[in-house]
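Page 42, continued from yesterday. The earlier attempt failed because a stray header line got pasted into the input along with the sequence. Redoing it now with the clean sequence only.
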Amino acid sequence: MCGFSGIYSKLNISSGSHINLIKQMNDILSHRGPDADGLRLSNDSKCIFGHRRLSIIDLDSKANQPMSSNCKKVHLVFNGEIYNFKELKIEISKINNLKWITDHSDTEVILNAYLTWGIDCIKKFNGMFAIAIYDERSQKPILHLIRDRIGIKPIYLTLSNNNEWVFSSEIKSILLHPFVKKEINQNSLSHYLSFIVSPPPMTLYKNIYKIPAGHRIEINFSGEAKSVKWWDCLPNKKNTLTTNDISENESIDKLEELLRKSIERRMVSDVNFGVLLSGGVDSSIIAAMMSQLHNSKINSFTIGYENHGENEFKEAQHVSNLYNTNHHEIKITEKDVLKSLPEIVNFLDEPIADNVCIPLYHLSKYINKNSTKVIQVGEGADETMLGYWWVQHYLKKYIEIYGKGKESHLINIFKSFFFKNTQTISSSSKENLEFIERYKNNKQLFWGGAMCFFTSEKDLLINKDVKYSNLDCPVKDLLPEEYDNEDSSSVVGHYLDKLNGNLADPEILQKITYLELKMRIPEHLLMRIDKMTMSSSIEARVPFLDHELVEWLNRLPLKYKLNLNDGKYILKKLGTKYFDHKFMFRQKKGFGSPMNKWIQNEEFFRYIDYNFQNSKIFDHFLNKEECLKILHQCKNGIDNSFKLWTIANLVLWFNMNFN
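This time it went through. Structure tokens are written below.
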């Protein structure tokens, strides 16, 4: 796990000034890689790489980056891990008589895989990765920027005002370039209020883009860039298995096989590793399997809150006792949270309005102090196996509102198949009015698992004089045409409209998983994990998002995921091999923060209020009166904390970067 930055120009770059700049860009990423740093200027003086290393596999200095081929004409920087590097090294050695410089570096395996198979080598990688490769073997050099299938590792880029391509693991590094202008992307700001993140490839900075999950960008010798989708997980009715194709028991056995294999792969490390143990289903199963696969105690870590009951210490301790982990607990207070908010906002780079970032940040600091560098986390299980309560909620809405055009017997099948309770939904709620409006306008029902403000609410929240601009993206095929406005339904439609009529019934369930894989998983869940753990030089690995497991789950019968009010049904059934039935099928708590309680603390309230009162964001973008109304509602005990944190996160970020 590391951080990197780079600059590419079709003209020769001046070595002195650019080397100093890359050093600065590198230094600001030191938290991502405290163990080593390096620079590399290409032979043709058109490309320069910087790298910060967090040593996890092959700790020898020969494995440091940037790394160049034996011919010194192919150069690479890489952030992440390739879990099948040993198998690939054997395969490469059978094909190419290459001289290996390192003992067991996965970085060198990437480099030699590229020399052996070209850019298609990335399809052979099992892992998490952001990669930059500069190939100057011909008179027409090319730069490749690659993001892994699921989007576990980030990579950002922009075209500077002096026509240099600037890229990095973090936006703050790019902003050090003197010809990169810091501006707000107003279209993205509108989408952020819907999705609590900026949708890929947008960021909240105008003209700075993130490469979407499963995409790569090629920049040729003329400086022309194009985006290529190299992986997708499109659901399809024809490929979706039925209960006649695979039984429940067969599914449980296959899930166990794939998950154990994924967890074992992610235990490959030359440093200490552990697990984030919330006490929930996902992390408990990971802890159980890790303990069985490892010949000594594993480290487990749990966080909770002083003076608040929203802790899972009891459940986590139960798992630890069963599987004999070396267990650690930490509690944080309102004062701890308040003190850390500026640091959290800074490390996030752009707002991610999820208050889980707060405990993750503090837990990562604690893990670092306990000499553990690698942790496994449970992200992705709920999204790929329909585990959240709101999945059933959206299915009911789909039946009530969007089901009007379907045959009545089909609707009755949906109800009996997935629900115990089939009561009619009230049509008078604000949410229902929004959903009915979407139906009337032929828009998708589901917009994401962390939707915040409805369109009607955004109309009140955003100043009337905000002018949205047409976006001119310099990378061909990167920014979809549908994104070129403030209407968030167009973002959703870009992903889901093409699926209409091609999915297993009820279509809404496969649409939920697909949209989560395209937006919420890579840009929300995985970025909160990446940014918060890397702030303390901790590498997080996500076994539920192994691409082989994700592809298999994508084909699984829907009944094995959502079964009579039990979301994530198949995983819970698997879990009964490791825990008792009651523990696995208890009500889901979720891993969150008591923001609604914190905001009633006077000091906490004053801090947020001060930032609201003194922010220029209300001069340009947001309606101050509406935002203060939400703040005071929370202070008075009305739980609007999700909406408040979405606004507060944006305001704190704006104040840090633009005030």
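Notes: Residues 2-182 form a domain with the Glutamine Phosphoribosylpyrophosphate, subunit 1, domain 1 fold (CATH 3.60.20.10).
Reminder to self: strip header lines before submitting.
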